[in-house]
Amino acid sequence: MRNPKILVLDRGEELAQQIQHVADDIRPRPDVVPCTRLGSVGELLENEGPFDVLVAGPSLGTRSGLQRLGLIREELPGMSVVLAFSRRPDGSLREIVRSGAIDLLQLPIDDKELIDAIDRAIELAQTATPVATEPAAPAAAPVVAAPGVRQPGRVFTISSATGGCGKTFFATNIGFFLTRYTGKRVCIVDLDLQFGEVVTAMRLRPKYTIFDALQREDADEDDLRAHIEEYTVAHETGVHVLAAPREPSEADRISPPDVTRIIE
Known about the structure:
By secondary structure, the protein is of the alpha/beta class. The protein contains eleven helices and eight strands.
């Protein structure tokens, strides 16, 4: 198994020196590669990668720096990004989130806190992109569907008994992530039937809702399957949404078997 690799990107050398200093206390010991020329980071990533962790120093705390980190993160989604800053970054919270940072470190930072942050970043990177230590076994032959038979989609359920805990935030972001990085078609079905806010969060104006889809007169299963997409609304990212009912009272007319029909 190879040692983890950490790229430290900052115009100054102090942060890289501290990370090199604490590297002996991290197991397995990571290889630390400093980069003080921001313009050469693309070439470095290509020639010396893959890197498990990118630690971005204070000079990346500008709006342009955060945008650069976001582009790097899009190209290398398996790499953990850690943002270290000595004063609050110039960018907005939204720009910081878009940079892909999984952790924020306030400088100066003590060695133990730095080690903990690096350990966590390495663990997340290796969980997302496990490195094979043995030759891979031959892949099983793919299952080929019979002509005209659709393969079922995969369903991810995000739920909680409490409101305001982040269900909508998580569902919309995982929908975008799956669309962007798997190339599959994704639809969010908002089953918070009385107070669903997916379309509000995504700034969409749906013409229809799940209630409308279920009101199709004399619609058998094949007919509903053929027309279900007409009741969704597409976001600019490619994610489709089947909206919750407009009126809370409509939720009372949707039963568990109805939800099963929609998902199937």
